[in-house]
Write a structure and sequence with these properties.
Blueprint (H helix, E strand, L loop, with lengths): L9 H12 L2 H8 L3 H15 L4 E4 L2 E4 L1 H25 L9 E5 L5 H15 L4 E5 L7 H6 L5 E4 L8 E15 L12 H5 L3 E4 L14 H5 L5 E3 L4 H6 L5 E5 H11 L2 E4 L6 E9 L6 H20 L3 E2 L5 E2 L4
Helix pairs in contact: 1-2, 1-3, 1-4, 2-3, 5-11
């Protein structure tokens, strides 16, 4: 069995920084070390692990299979140590150097992520925020259990036991056409829509699809000749063609005011889509995580209010209790 006796645990910080930055110089800057000291630490790591760990290539330092295999466990262990020390001291946003990972795949996610980042910077200038706009992927619950992903903002709830789903607000869907479209107008009915071509987004498998994303509108769009990957691509197509597109209402105000699009409601009852803040119950007593949850909820709800969307701020309960 391997032993940690005699291992300088600071070397693990160097390993983590090298893996993240893929650069000896950038890793040194992150850790406040000279390039020479960082290179010396890498040499000691190689000797300890009996592996090169990182190979020099034209694009930077490339991890070896051994480095890829050991990084997740080392990163998780270091994060646990950081959190333990933070908790022992109490969480002080102004002084904290914690790193938070947030998945925010809402169609307006990149814009909302920058809003959250700016708000965090004002309160916690040394905290690092990293964002991923993937829709709640199959591996997200595992990543949240292991502490590699702090929380997600998504229109898909986590159904696994011990997860918390807090409704932030209700988004809904509208139909968009370019200004000057020869047939589009506010108040279009099903008969008018049936005569038009649509650009649509790829549909998820039924088990990964919000229940609201089905029904007559989706059946009408089934034979669309143009399918894109993300909702952010829809306005780009709509502005340059006579295609109609479906957008979240949170994007409608920008589409209408800044790009002159024609926005009309989907006929019939509104198609409402709750937006959820998702996190693992095991983080409930983590003061830093509580700060993050409050900040994300506040900024998301403020953005929703500006877009004229209904708030949802219901009590956060584990899925088993809801």
């Amino acid at each position: 069995m391997a032993t940690l006796k005699g291992l300088d645990l600071n070397l693990l910080l160097v390993f983590e920084a090298l893996y993240d930055t893929r650069s000896v110089s950038r890793a040194g800057v992150r850790l406040g070390l000279s390039q020479s000291a960082t290179s010396h630490a890498l040499a000691r790591l190689r000797e300890t692990c009996r592996d090169e760990l990182f190979l020099r290539t034209p694009t930077g330092m490339t991890p070896t299979p051994v480095a890829n295999r050991i990084f997740p466990e080392i990163h998780q262990a270091l994060e646990a140590l950081r959190h333990s020390v933070e908790e022992a001291r109490g969480f002080d946003p102004a002084a904290s150097t914690r790193r938070f990972e947030v998945a925010i795949p809402h169609p307006w996610g990149p814009v909302l992520a920058m809003r959250i980042r700016d708000a965090a910077l004002a309160e916690a200038p040394r905290v690092t925020m990293r964002f991923d706009t993937r829709t709640l992927a199959d591996d997200a619950p595992t990543l949240m259990r292991e502490g590699l992903l702090d929380l997600a903002v998504d229109w898909i709830r986590a159904e696994d036991d011990r997860f918390v789903n807090k409704r932030l607000f209700d988004d809904s869907l509208v139909i968009a056409a370019r200004g000057g479209h020869p047939r589009a107008f506010k108040g279009m009915g099903w008969r008018h829509l049936a005569a038009e071509e649509f650009v649509r987004c790829h549909r998820r498998a039924p088990e990964r699809r919000p229940k609201a994303l089905q029904g007559r509108l989706w059946e009408m769009m089934a034979d669309s000749r143009l399918t894109v990957s993300e909702y952010l691509e829809v306005p780009f197509v709509v502005l340059r063609t006579d295609y109609l597109g479906v957008l979240p209402r949170s994007m409608a105000r920008v589409a209408e005011q800044e790009y002159g699009m024609i926005i009309t409601d989907v006929p019939g009852p509104p198609i409402r889509i709750p937006i959820w803040l998702v996190w693992h119950e095991g983080r409930r007593r983590d003061a830093g995580h509580a700060w993050l949850r409050a900040l994300v909820a506040r900024e998301m709800q403020a953005a929703a209010a500006r877009a004229g969307l209904g708030g949802g701020a219901e009590a956060a309960l584990p899925v088993a209790a809801q």
